[in-house]
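Morning. Coffee machine broken again, so started the prediction first thing and wrote up yesterday's gels while waiting. Chain of 128 residues, entered below exactly as on the submission form.
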Amino acid sequence: MPNLPQLCLRYLAWVVGLRVLHIVGVQMLGLPNTLGTVVILASVPAVDIGMQALRRAGTMPPFQAWVILALSLFGSFMAVQIGMAALSSLENVRAMLSIPAMVVWLATLAMIALFLWIGVRQEQRRGA
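Came back before lunch.
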C-alpha cells in the first residue's frame, strides 16, 4: 500500500474543501444540511483515494491493506468531526458519541469502503 499518511492528508483536504463549499451552499443557496449530506461528503473523496492508492501501488494491494486504508480514512474523518465538536462544547462531543450517532458513523464507514471500491474499479477500467 502506498504512503498512508499522504493518502489520509489528501482525503482530509478533499473533505474540508467539500465541507466548506457545502457550508457556503447552505448559507447562500439554501441547500439542505442533513446527516445524510455529511455521510456523502465524507464518502465521495474516497473514490479519488482508491484511484490514487491503486495507481501508486502499481498492483492490487491485498484486502487487508484496503481495510487498513478505509479505517484510516474513517479515523481521520472522525478526528476532525470530534475536534470540531469539542471546539464548541463538551455536550456536542457527548451527542456525537451517542448510540444514534454511532449508527450514522457506521454508515459513513460503510460508504467510505464502498466509494474506495468504486475508485479502484474506475482505475482498473482506466488502466485496462
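The helical segments are 4-29, 35-43, 45-57, 63-88, 90-96, 99-127. Going to sketch it on the whiteboard this afternoon.
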